[in-house]
Write a structure and sequence with these properties.
Blueprint (H helix, E strand, L loop, with lengths): L5 H21 L3 H9 L5 H23 L5 H21 L5 H21 L10 H19 L4 H9 L4 H25 L5 H25 L4 H24 L1
Helix pairs in contact: 1-2, 1-3, 1-9, 2-3, 3-8, 3-9, 4-6, 4-8, 5-10, 6-7, 7-8
Length: 248
């Protein structure tokens, strides 16, 4: 199989590098960043599993660094909810208009980020226990199955829990890994991992790991307040991207 055009390769490499950096720095956001580049060079049927593959590998690289924040008793409700939610969201896809859904989620994210940016003392939600955590994971899984936006609900929820940045990453990263790995397996069963996918994977994976390594090094130099602002910025950008792609 011939290699893609040089311009497409350069665009995809740039997207992989920036997305890997953001993922290494924050533990989330790979799909948001990479798809903005990749969809100009490849079909969504290739881009979606490629995002899952590169993101999972990037998470695996940084997992030892945030392992102290992984507490199984806190994590498993999110993971169980997410893995249940993905097939539910996929099954609902035929009955839901994805465009309006993305606009609604985008507006919600922008409202949340704007509100949190001006709150002097961010609210902390202590109630609900594991059931509430599982519900957040379920919501992320359902949105992931319907529109590939599994991250925002769990990210917002762990912020509202008032956990440290290490504790937030100790939930978000393994959660994203499990949901994306499940999506990758689903794509493989559906036959989407063709020769084109593997060509792009060979190009993007090394660059993703380099970007993730750089982002992870910078992560060690920020504090909880800076991490909170970083996550709010990514969520706000995600909201604008969802609205923009739905209206274009």
């Amino acid at each position: 199989m011939e290699l893609p055009p040089a311009g497409d390769i350069a665009l995809v490499i740039a997207g992989a590098l920036v997305a890997g950096f953001v993922n290494g720095l924050s533990g989330t956001g790979y799909a948001l960043v990479s798809l903005g580049f990749w969809l100009h060079a490849m079909s969504p049927l290739t881009a979606a599993p490629l995002v899952a593959f590169c993101s999972v590998c990037g998470h695996l690289q940084s997992l030892p660094r945030i392992w102290q924040g992984v507490i199984w008793s806190r994590l498993w409700p999110f993971m169980v909810g997410g893995l249940i939610g993905v097939p539910l969201g996929t099954a609902m896809l035929a009955h839901v208009q994805v465009g309006p859904l993305k606009i609604g989620v985008g507006l919600l994210l922008i409202f949340y980020c704007s509100w949190m940016a001006f709150v002097r003392r961010p609210p902390v939600v202590l109630g609900g226990g594991r059931l509430a955590d599982a519900t957040a994971g379920l919501g992320g899984g359902v949105l992931g199955g319907m529109a590939s936006i599994s991250g925002p609900i769990p990210v917002i929820w762990v912020q509202l829990r008032g956990w440290t940045m290490l504790a937030q990453r100790g939930v978000n990263q393994p959660y994203n890994m499990s949901v994306l790995a499940f999506s990758l397996v689903t794509a493989a069963i559906a036959g989407f991992l063709d020769r084109t996918f593997f060509v792009w994977a060979a190009i993007t994976l090394p660059v993703t790991l380099i970007g993730a390594h750089i982002g992870l090094r910078l992560y060690g130099r920020i504090d909880d307040a800076q991490f909170r602002r970083l996550i709010l910025g990514l969520l706000g950008l995600s909201g604008l991207t969802l609205i923009g792609t739905s209206l274009s």
